[in-house]
Amino acid sequence: MEQRMSRRDFLKLAAAMGIGCVVSGCGSSPTAVPTAPVNAAQTPASINWLEWWVNEWGKENHDALISGFLAANPDIKLDVIDVGYDEMLPKLQTAAMSGTGWDLFGNEPEWLVPWVQLGMAEDLTPWLAKAGPAFNDRLTNMTPVYWQGKPYMLYLYLVSFNLAYDAAKLKAMEIEPPTNWDEFYTACKKFRDKGEYGYGMSLRPDSDAFTGKMWALRACQAGGSLVTPQGEVVFNQEPGIIATEWWRKFYQDGLALPGSETEDKQTTSENLATGKIAMTIDGPYIRAQCQQINPNSDVHWCPAWTQETGGYLWGGSGICMWAKGQHKEQAWKFIEYFFQDEIMLPLSQKTSVPFALKSVLAQPGLENDPILHALPAMVSQDPEHSWAFSPIPDLGTLYLALSEAVIGCVKGEKKDIKGTLDEVAGLWQKTLDEAAKGG
User: Fold this and answer.
1) Quick one: CA dihedral 54, 57, 62, 65, positive or negative?
2) Same domain, 9 and 148
3) 314: Cβ–Cβ under 8 A, 6 or more apart, which residues?
4) What residue numbers bound the domain in which 258 lies?
5) With a threshold of 0.70, does the pTM exceed it?
6) How many whole angstroms separate alpha carbon 342 and alpha carbon 331?
7) Residue 56 sits in the same domain as residue 120
8) Contact present, 438 and 28 (Cβ < 8 Å)
9) Are 293 and 333 contained in the same domain?
10) Which of 366, 382, 398 is the last residue in one of the domains?
11) Which of 136, 166, 194, 396 is buried deepest, with most CB atoms within 10 A?
12) How confident is the model over 402-411, as pLDDT tens digits?
């Protein structure tokens, strides 16, 4: 799992942005989908699930999940179609165009809009309502994934970013792990002022990851978001301005490692593992990555931060129901079975996958983990201001525009922060509104 997350860390944990439109015509008028059964009626009812998680979770663990469901539901047969991750999108594109598919399918939020427009993804509103509080109260507020105010996907797992630090370097500098953005700035300034200990961090403002990880996290903790579940673009409001101003000051005060503007993710990890920098904002896999580079590396996550708010941004992968399926009741039974505390919590403990249930993300025993000790507070301290990434059409074009605007402001090339963000927000809103007309 960690390698896949790392390879696509920006898509999943950095604003779910940075790729082009996933289906030709995304955002255009919907194509009619033929009504075609997924399976002929069978006894027991047969459902299937297209996904890519057998190897990521371990075959034995995955087999136990399926066996447990079948034992609890002897009237249902479940066939798993496990494919490589790189095969998923082409298969889903083909299914969307043909109108035939699978009762359940793995999905990414950035793929979702065309599936809704083509009548492929089921609106989960009635199913969640029918399940009631016994089911919904287990979910985090970020688990459902919305398009136009309706949930079409449930995140299976959620991951986030936090400030990671080299424990030895902070100890040598007599710096306590930062607990907010002000302390982070002060720590980086101490490194800058005492040059023999190197620099606080690499900034990488020329990379996509800067806007997605660093700028978006600062905006989130200022109380902001990118887009509301109802489709309103809001990153040009006060929190987005606060984030841009904060990073502009950091950049212009020269607190980042010189030459790091264009470095890639691997170089940043190498710099942290070898002591050239002391900190970076990254996902939970950063400790393992650094230890692969330098076995003596000792990277920790800081305690959960609070600034204007204690919110965090989240991403992940999820599950959808096929809207034309003939066995929706049985497919929903699998979702209800899987999203139980007694199913997801033990599976998480075996696989280290942060499944999208409150009980998993706040499980006991994490307090001694160098990274995951921060996770319960990140989830629970301010859920009102935490958010997970929503589907965004014409992803590549919109993200490029936002990234160029933010980076230009941070580097001082664009002076009017509010006006620059307003201009890009207008492009985003126009694109979202046009896509909304398509369904």
Assistant:
1) negative
2) yes
3) 13, 142, 155, 158, 159, 160, 386, 387, 388, 389
4) 161-312
5) yes
6) 19
7) yes
8) yes
9) no
10) 382
11) 166
12) 999 999 999 9
